[in-house]
Amino acid sequence: MLLNERYIGLMSGTSVDGVDAVLADFGDGRVQTLGHVHVPFAPALRTALQGLMQSGADEIERAGDASVALARTYADAVKALLAKTGVEARDVAAIGAHGQTIRHRPERGFTWQLNHPALLVELTGIAVVADFRSRDVAAGGQGAPLVPAFHAAVFQDDEPRAVINIGGIANVTLLPAKGSPEPVRGFDTGPGNTLLDAWCERHTGRPYDASGQWGATGEVDTALLADLLADPYFSQPAPKSTGRERFNLAWLDAALARRQTVLTPVDVQATLTALTARTVGMAIGQLPALVCGGGVFNDALMRQLPGARSTAALGVDPMQVEALAFAWLARQCFASAPGNLSTVTGATGPRVLGAVYPT
Predict the structure, then answer these.
(1) Which of 55, 74, 313, 334 lies 20 to 30 Å (CA to CA) from residue 157?
(2) Got the DSSP string for 151-193?
(3) What interhelical angle do 265-284 and 249-257 show, nearest 10?
């Protein structure tokens, strides 16, 4: 029996904007969020992480330096979270530290999340569970998305629904009604905010398009949208997962180079918004949807997802869902319970996920 039911979840996703830290209590068979903090990445670390997501020289030393800086940022987030909640380190069972994905190649048998869990243990005095994705990949799975198991535990209801996480890469969870023999399904739909943010930063200097206001002033170019949608990933059957390795500015630039006319930057932004909305919409069909992740604050995007509502409607902050999921996955690991859903990832079966770094 698990006695200490307090876990910290750390998540830094493909948006590469910072660390979300959540302290959760899983006692009494429910999920209670005790506190949340967001620690932005220092500009130098953000640049280093973005660079490691592309091929280049000196990657080993750059990765080593970045892993140390990342662990120190994680530790700062944990300390701020404990100070905010008044909880002592000794009263937390473990930290679930996802790490920062810099390569995701399940088709080649590996996924790499930059992390330094041993240093994080030393800096916080709390046990750490890390490397959640590798075991699923080793079992023939995609290693992603991993959040559907948590979505099922928290958001499944008497009627079918979808949960959409719009981070850098968007993913969906398709939840059948409680008691249904149908399995939970899910997959990465493609770009979420990653292209929107990168294009906005290139042309405005701002790291993201606040509320989608800039993109909302542009016009969707239907020819460009059709070209982007023709990428084979979108018609590929699940299970599937993707990342910045595929969907990045170079991918977009190649599509723009095929155009006969030059588009204004704001029209490209509007078209990228439509791309995210269209690919998410194709995935969920007519299911009512709950939305989490930074995309929930893009009003232009949300208007293109009719009937979708924030997870805040159910009392779960949309910016806390992923970090909560990795706190839950750490708990699953400590309980020697599976953390993956093979119907989602394509693994040969359920697996206990994560490697434990004890105090």
Answers:
(1) 334
(2) HHHHH--SS-EEEEEESSEEEEEEEPPTT-SSPPEEEEEEESS
(3) 110
Torsion angle, CA of 22/25/26/30, rounded to 10 degrees?
-100
- pLDDT value at position 55? 60
Distance between alpha carbon 64 and the CA centroid of its chain, in Å?
23
CB 63 within 8 A of CB 114: yes
Tokens of 341: 């859903």
Output the pTM of the full model: 0.89
pLDDT digits (tens, 9 = 90+) for 50-70: 888 776 656 878 888 899 999
For residue 338, give every residue at least 6 positions away whose Cβ sits within 8 Å of its Cβ, in sequence order, or none: 149, 332, 350, 351, 352, 353
Q: Taking a C-beta distance cutoff of 8 angstroms, is the pair 158, 178 a contact?
A: yes
Of how many residues is the chain composed? 359
Q: Distance between CA atoms of 249 and 246, rounded to whole angstroms? A: 9
DSSP assignments along 53-115, one per residue: TS--TTHHHHHHHHHHHHHHHHHHHHHHHHHHHT--GGG--EEEE--EEEEEEGGGTEEEEE-
CA 275 to chain centre: 18
Helices (H), 139-287: 148-155, 194-204, 213-216, 222-229, 232-235, 249-257, 265-284
The pLDDT mean for the chain works out to: 95
Asked if residue 239 has a cis previous peptide bond (ω within 30° of 0), the answer is: yes
Running DSSP on this structure, what letter comes out for residue 208?
Answer: S
Residue type, 56: G
Decide: residue 213, CB within 10 A, 0-12 exposed, 13-18 middle, 19+ buried. Answer: exposed
Residue 270's contacts (CB-CB under 8 Å, 6 or more residues apart) are: 215, 216, 217, 218, 219, 220, 221, 300
